[in-house]
TrEMBL record:
GO terms for molecular function: tRNA (L-threonylcarbamoyladenosine(37)-C2) methyltransferase activity. It comes from Pelovirga terrestris. The keyword S-adenosyl-L-methionine applies. InterPro entries: TrmO-like_N (IPR023370), TrmO_C (IPR041369), UPF0066_cons_site (IPR023368), YaeB-like (IPR040372), YaeB-like_sf (IPR036413), YaeB_N_sf (IPR036414). This is tRNA (N6-threonylcarbamoyladenosine(37)-N6)-methyltransferase TrmO. Residues 6-147 form the TsaA-like domain.
Amino acid sequence: MENVSLSPIAVIHSPFKEKFATPRQSGLTPSVRARVEFLPGFSSSESVRGLEGFSHIWLLFIFHQHLDQGWSPTVRPPRLGGNRRVGVFASRSPFRPNPIGLSAVRLLNIDNKAATLTLEIEGADLIDGTPIIDIKPYIPYADSIATAQGGFADSEPQPCLEVIFSATARGKLCDFSEQTPELEALIRDTLSLDPRPAYHHQRDDQRSYGCHLDRYNIRWQVDGAHIIISDIEID
């Protein structure tokens, strides 16, 4: 078999700036919006003719931050606490022989009026700048299988922490709301899923954490079943 060369057709612009706190699957943060911007040579409105009839699409993408990190036949999925190994092909780990991922997202709008073709989407789990190598329509009768079994990931992760804003963070949130009205929802939806490594999920965790969401640096700590947002700064 000859090697196959793949060229990105688009790039995603999302509020997730780093791996930490990026949702581990698509659809877990349904209020989070992102844009798929087609690259020159692929930005033709003809290429998306008929796509407006579909509510959801598949994005196939490259795990571009892992290209030089190799792969292993087994991985430790976060869903299993990070301490049990399964085969790489029984996981969605980015450390794969061919670092290709896929995500099902909601298609909100197609903007083909400007010079650059863009898709507005919802529920993405992709880091900002991720290269897209293909887009396909989500077809319910073929892609949704009612009797499918999910193995060790059979149930959908549920929000497990209540997000509380300190007085300082609440004041900053009010200051930033005019520029980014969706900021509170972005913080709540993302952090309520507890993005910490599984081995940090103990109740007496005294660490301070930080993550970058959109243009903001969010600082927080865990207090029992609560995440306390201590500060919000513009990067």
